[in-house]
């Protein structure tokens, strides 16, 4: 069994089916990318893993069935989440926002805070500044940093490059790769930025209208005519 095993899940919003028999596996320490257009179901998949949807099917993490658990319990088990909407507290300081992420890893708080500041020196410089005054790239760093404060074994990041300049995207990928190399954590990335996802991931799932349309290693997927035509305009 894989470290994270999503088996045949289905999510309905009313009558609309947002995930239609989706299965995804993430091995320990692996980086897996979920790509696909707007509305494909990427965020719904990550939301389901962290317990925010009402879904059918199985979601097993480290041998434990997540489906009956609350999000808090799931975070405690070792899944960190940097959601697309970021959900930061705009009138709280940068450090305070980071500490919110530490609620289930209190013992490791100091060590993790140090690690986040090493990863993103800008967050240490701005630690007392209200987060609403930060740029888009800085907010993304704060959101990632907060997810890391929960000491995850699996980090889920939703559209980390959305609206960010290329240099900031590079910075984000450097940090994600660093986290993986240093802490051996697995990473599940949802991205519309296909190039970014292909560069970072060992395995890619292409979601379209709630279904896994293709999956494979980046080198293979890049050669697929469908991917070339649809996502690279070749
Ligand atoms: N809370 C919700 N209520 C109703 N429909 C939703 C909700 N969240 C997502 N959806 C629908 O589910 C589908 C997948 O959305 P989403 O997971 O956000 O896609 P993606 O992240 O790939 O852009 C879309 O059709 C979207 O409109
Ligand atoms: Mg989304």
CATH class, named Alpha Beta
Mean pLDDT: 94
Strand segment count: 10
- Quote the beta fraction: 25-35%
Cofactors, ions and other ligands in the entry? adenosine-5'-diphosphate, magnesium ion
Order of the strands making up the biggest sheet: 6-7-8-3-9-10
| CATH homologous superfamily assignment | P-loop containing nucleotide triphosphate hydrolases
**Annotation field: number of helices:** 10
Reported CATH architecture: 3-Layer(aba) Sandwich
The radius of gyration computed from the alpha-carbon positions, rounded to a whole number of angstroms, is 17 Å
Distance between the termini: 38 Å
Secondary-structure element sequence? EEEHEEHEHHHHEHEHEEHH
Protein architecture, described:
Helix 7 links the parallel strand 7 (154-158) and strand 8 (186-191). The chain has a single domain (4-87, 150-231), classed as P-loop containing nucleotide triphosphate hydrolases (Rossmann fold, 3-Layer(aba) Sandwich), CATH 3.40.50.300. Helix content is 38%, strand content 26%. It is an alpha/beta fold. The protein is built from ten helices and ten strands. Strands 6-7-8-3-9-10 form a six-stranded mixed β-sheet, with helices on both faces. The chain has a four-stranded antiparallel β-sheet with strand order 2-1-4-5. 41% of the residues are buried. Bound molecules: adenosine-5'-diphosphate and magnesium ion (MG).
């Amino acid at each position: 069994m894989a470290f994270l095993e999503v088996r045949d899940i289905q999510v309905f919003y009313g009558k609309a089916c947002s995930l239609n028999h989706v299965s995804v596996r993430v091995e320990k320490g692996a980086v897996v990318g979920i790509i696909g257009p707007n509305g494909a179901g990427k965020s719904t998949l990550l939301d389901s893993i962290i317990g925010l949807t009402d879904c059918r099917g199985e979601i097993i993490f480290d041998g434990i069935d997540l489906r009956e658990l609350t999000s808090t319990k799931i975070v405690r088990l070792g899944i960190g989440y940097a959601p697309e909407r970021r959900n930061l507290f705009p009138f709280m300081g940068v450090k305070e926002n980071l500490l919110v992420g530490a609620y289930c890893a209190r013992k490791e708080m100091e060590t993790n805070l140090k690690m986040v500041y090493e990863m993103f020196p800008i967050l240490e410089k701005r630690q007392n500044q209200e987060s609403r005054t930060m740029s888009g790239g800085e907010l993304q760093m704060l959101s990632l940093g907060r997810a890391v404060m929960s000491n995850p074994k699996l980090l889920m990041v939703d559209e980390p490059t959305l609206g960010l300049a290329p240099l900031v995207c590079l910075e984000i990928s450097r940090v994600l790769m660093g986290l993986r190399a240093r802490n051996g954590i697995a990473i599940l990335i949802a991205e519309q930025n296909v190039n970014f996802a292909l560069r970072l991931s060992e395995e890619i799932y292409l979601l379209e209208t709630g279904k896994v349309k293709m999956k494979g290693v980046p080198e293979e997927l890049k050669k697929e005519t469908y991917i070339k035509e649809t996502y690279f305009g070749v």
